[in-house]
Design a protein that fits this description.
The protein contains ten helices and five strands; from the N terminus they run βββαββααααααααα. By secondary structure, the protein is of the alpha+beta class. It has a five-stranded mixed beta barrel with strand order 1-2-3-5-4.
Length: about 200
Amino acid sequence: MFYSLHGILRLARPGVAVVDCGGVGYLCAVSDTTLRALPAPGNEVLLYTHLAVREDAMDLYGFAQQEELDLFRLLIGISGVGPKAAMAILGELPPERLAVCIAAGDAKTITRAPGVGAKIAQRVVLELKDKVGGFAAGGVLEEVEAAGAANASGNAADAVEALVSFGYSRSEASLAVGRLDSALPADQLIKQALKTLGKF
C-alpha cells in the first residue's frame, strides 16, 4: 500500500519516527539502525515502508535503506519471527552485517538482538542462507560469498572452526578465511586469517 514516505522528519526517538508528508504525520516503527541514519528533526527524509495489517491494528514500519526493508520482509516470512523480533535483529545488525552472519551460519551473533534466542537465530540462518545474496551488492555481495565459501570447503571450514574456538565470531572467522585461497592447508589459513584479524 505504501512504498515510501518522503517529507519532513518531525520526531525521532528510540523505536519511532514521525514523517510529515503534506501536513499528515505518519508514525513509523524504526529499528536502531534506521534511527542512527536519520537526520535531525526538521530536515527532509525518505523512509521505505512496510504496512502490517492485523485485525486490531495497522502498523507502519520505516527503513532508511531498501536493503533493510527487504531483509525485514524476509525475516517476518519465517515462522516464529514477528515484526518485533525482526526489528530487534535489524537494530542490532545493519543489513550488510546480518547478510554476512547468515551466509557464515553465525547464529550466535544474531542472538545478541534483544529477545532473540538460539532457536530463532538458527531458523533465520537456515531459512535465509540461500536468499541473502539476492539483495547484497558490490563489496557486501563479495563478503557474503566469501563467508559462505569458507564454511563449505574442507580446509577452510576447519580453519573457521579453529578461529571460532579462539573466540572470534563465526562471521568474522568466515570472512577472514573466505578471502584466502581455500587450497591452502588449514594451519596456513589460520595463520593468514589471524594476521588479517590483527593477531599474530
